[in-house]
Amino acid sequence: MSEERKIRILVAKPGLDGHDRGAKVIASAFRDAGLEVIYTGLHQTPEMIVSAAVQEDVDVVAMSVLSGAHMTLFPRVKKLLDEAGADHVLLTGGGIIPEDDVAALEAQGVGRLFGPGTPTSAAIEYVKEWFSAQNTA
Amino acid sequence: MSTIEKELESRAELASVLRARERELAELKARLAEWEEAFESTPKRDALFTTVSGREIDPLYTELDRSGAPDHEALGVPGTFPFTRGPYPTMYRTRLWTMRQFAGFATAEETNARYKYLLQHGQTGLSVAFDFPTLMGFDSDHPRSLGEVGVCGVAISSLADMEQLFDEIPLDEVSVSMTINGPAIILFCFYVAAAEKQGVDVSELRGTVQNDILKEYQAQHAWVFPPEPALRCIVDMFAWCSEHTPKYNPISISGYHIREAGATAAEELAFTLRNGFEYVERGIARGLDVDSFAPRLSFFFDVHNDFFEEIAKLRAARRIWARGMKEKYGAKNPDSWRLRTHCQTAGVSLTAQQPENNIVRVAYQAMAAALGGTQSLHTNSMDETLSLPTEKAVRIALRTQQILAYESGVPNTIDPLAGSYFVESLTDDLEREALELFDEIDEQGGVVPGIEQGWFQREIAASAMRQQGEVESGDRVIVGVNDFLDGSEKVEIDTLKIDPEVESRQVARMAAIRAARDSDRVEQTLSALRDACRSDENVVPRILDCARAYCTLYEIRAAMEDVFGAFKEPVFF
């Protein structure tokens, strides 16, 4: 059992959007919940995010997207993760993402996406459950 | 009666007045003691009695809570120093606030149609929302723009797009506000060049460009250049505008984004005004006469949920600004002391759950803005946590302002809450807290060092975290989010979808513009701009030349970046 190991998570802000209130709040909440958190900073390209994910050997990439560019950014990061041999990494996130788009992205292998008003505890629980399922499987 | 007898008599009268006041005070204290006993012995609701900013609110305010200067100094009358009661003597009796809805999406063509729609429905000014590539200085066909073109606002990559944006909208008649900061000077030049193309006398241009880079570093993060060259460009604009576009506001010093990023009301107030004073200091350091540019400095505040705190914030802002400009910076022209502001209801207070409730939130916030004496107002649409607003949602938001203006009676009298023990006490408190925060900023070495060390960013993030904690613990009730759920949280309103073809259309348009222009002139004007950036020359005329030559946004940005470099974010959480 790898219960002792801390979950490593990359909190990322892809694209040109600078609204990082949510990203910083969720990064702090993950840290307070005992995860090992790496925050990318702003204005990251999908390539930069995937390279950081691989370099930091993370379990999870959590992207905050409020710009409406989610249908470009999530699939692109997913594809690059797969190509980098990091298809075991969970790609999840949150932001202003309409329900139809959430369903479409989940069908492409993206994990759960959380909307405005979600308590941080919901995201933390989701990541922890996913991680323990991975490690007991 | 002799002089000495008269004097003694008036002293006796004075003594009797003072004794009467003493008796009144003693009586007030006795009654308050009685009230306190009743209050303490009665059960209270189990609720937070703090503002959204975490301020403790007393159950009762009286004369005893006034701690500031006497009213004739602290309040004055509307339109006179220190402007607490309003920047103008007649306020809404002469002119209502400008109803200015922020709008922009897809291409210039679609947004132009939305502007015409808004003007037809009684909106009285325009406000341009740019897409993220434009906000960051990228062209629509730049690789970094992929997936973001026209999504969050309108894509404007050259003078050609700006001409299209205002097609059939006379720029000498309609005032236009543009929310752009990092590359503001470039978009401003596109705008001036578009007005020239319309045959408009540019000295008649009215409107505002946000152009407030300091709060970008602190809060919204749409920056391009590092602080020093960015500030130089802003002062270049102060100088150019005071000479060529005297009715235009070359900056809108903005607390809105600071607040939305998580700051408290007092932090919003203090950081914004301190940023404003920083611009003033930069202008003075350039050798500009403070009264030559200060009258055109404008402001932009958030109006959040806590009704009275927001009203007090706007009143305190005017007083702090007036005192600073007169007493510290030596401005002589009352227009330099007069803080004029735009307000927007708090986007961050909107909920994705039960979105129709947002109409009510916005209405209360709008009323606070009017009671606080704003000069213009944007009311958010109910669907903005889901997407850009639909036409219907925007119309309701505009109607909310019209009901406030024409039905509520609020605009009939000026500063109706003046003299309220509570509102005056809050105004005094906010002023004092802002001045204390000024000292903390000075301890960081000033605004720019505070930004470079991430001090502002950390303060704002800490406040955001505290607010999130209150909501998650359930202490801060958000209707429809953590209480009063009714199972109807599933969204059932229409949302606006941006046509995915927008990007390819805009990319094709860029190719056509590049093909049609004189490429020698493009090279010459860009090269002259680089030279100006290296020297002390005002860069505005050079950027205007680039705009007229149809240089693109990114080409101009890149030429400037060659000399100025780019800003590097202090990363932390």
Characterization of the model:
In chain A, strands 2-1-3-4-5 form a five-stranded parallel sheet, sandwiched between helices. With 137 residues, chain A is an alpha/beta fold. In chain A, 45% of the residues lie in helices and 17% in strands. The N and C termini of chain A lie close together (11 Å). In chain A, helix 1 (21-32) packs across helix 5. Chain A has one domain (8-136): Cobalamin-binding domain (Rossmann fold). The mean pLDDT of chain A is 94. Chain A is built from five helices and five strands, in the order E-H-E-H-E-H-E-H-E-H. In chain B, the strands form two sheets. Chain B has a five-stranded parallel sheet with strand order 1-10-9-8-7. A five-stranded parallel sheet of chain B has the order 2-3-4-5-6, with helices on one face. In chain B, helix 6 links the parallel strand 4 (176-179) and strand 5. The mean pLDDT of chain B is 95. The interface between A and B is large, with 38 and 44 residues.
* Secondary structure: number of strands of chain B: 10
Biggest sheet statistics of chain A: 5 strands, parallel
Low-confidence stretches of chain A: none
Structural class of chain A: alpha/beta
CATH class of chain A: Alpha Beta
Return the CATH architecture of chain B: Alpha-Beta Barrel
Strand order of the largest sheet of chain A: 2-1-3-4-5
What percent of the residues of chain B sit in helical stretches (DSSP H or I)?
40-55%
Helices of chain B, by number, come to 22
| Global geometry of chain B | globular
Question: What separation lies between the terminal Cα atoms of chain A?
Answer: 11 Å
What's the overall average pLDDT of chain A, rounded? 94
Biggest sheet details of chain B: 5 strands, parallel
- CATH class descriptor of chain B: Alpha Beta
The DSSP helix count of chain A reads 5
Distance, first to last CA of chain B? 78 Å
CATH architecture of chain A: 3-Layer(aba) Sandwich
Tell me the fraction of residues in β-strands of chain B, as a range. Answer: 5-15%
Q: Which pair of chains forms the biggest interface, and how many residues does each contribute? A: A-B, 38 and 44 residues
**Assembly classification:** heterodimer
